[in-house]
Amino acid sequence: MNVGIIDADLIFDDRRHITFPNLACMKLSGYHKERGDSVNLLLSYDNISHFDQVYISKVFTDTQIPQGNTFLKNPLEQPNVKYGGTGFFFDKAQPLPYEIEHHMPDYHLYDRFIQAKEKEGMKSEKMRFFRNFSIGFATRGCFRKCKFCVNKKYDRPEKNSRISEFLNPKYENITLLDDNILAYARWEEVFDELADIGKPFQFNQGMDIRSLKPEKAKALSESKYWKDYNFAFDDIADKETIEKNLRLWKKSSDRKKTTKFYVLCGYDRNDKYDLAFWKKDLQETFERLEFLMKNKCLPFLMRYEKCYDSYYSPVYRQLAQWTNHPPLFLKQSFKERLESPKNKKARSVYERVAREIPELKKYFDMKWDTVTS
Length: 373
What we know:
By secondary structure, the chain is α/β, with parallel strands linked by helices. 37% of the residues lie in helices and 14% in strands. The longest helix is centred in the C-terminal third of the chain and has 20 residues, at 275-294. It is globular and about 65 Å long.
């Protein structure tokens, strides 16, 4: 059988999505190669009719797939095409068959693509997850069912597989895609297996610090964790709980490592997205940034897709460029960022926000050295 595999996110924007491979694509490839099938990673939707079977997978909902025209048929409607992934909305997407879900990923699926990118000058460090990380789920699911999350089909975290199932012994590190490991009832089993394997690991998703307990904090801080710890701060309403558990975490954490928080912004839980919401959201985002700065934690702004079309889109863009680049965030205030001679377009943003949302002005001067001292 001649099989084609399409990572739709990669085709849509390889600059944005080149940093991480599609796990479903790798499992499909591994399964078919073991059966003796010919497998190709396709980098366009052209000629998909030439393959016996084509799989299309996407992770991000904003990734677009050609809808077809006079000369090209809609890829998703072709008889030899199957598609899935969270990008098609998790509750509607069909899960992989058991024998594929639990198959060793093909860690060589992207080899030719990566080699081509390296020849173009792409730095190897940017592609580390393609080159040196075993990837998989020890658990799946979360009990919170947040409205903005595409994964709502589980009532609680459940065991998915042993790490040995997707472990590449040649790779130095492990990255786990678990939705909410700290809420898993038998979390100790996962940490015990990781300890037995002995390789540095990380949880790729922002961990749920609201579910942190002393014994979990101790196990996490004493583990062979790879680089920085990442948690999530999605809602200002959780500030009190996060503050309490952050104090707990600070008592146990490795001080040599940085604690980071993914900060969701631009999501309206009332689905109005009016001007009043955007002003409120910006205030609450700055409040969370100030809180993290005071607690010596680095933020990483996660802009919900509505941000890109909002009235204050330029503000969110400037804010992300500031927070998501630690060298800037650690040295400049937001005001200094906007007033930089190298950032002329940002000056109008500052003037506009200061005029329309004067409540934000008190946050514009906050600076890491001053706030944390």
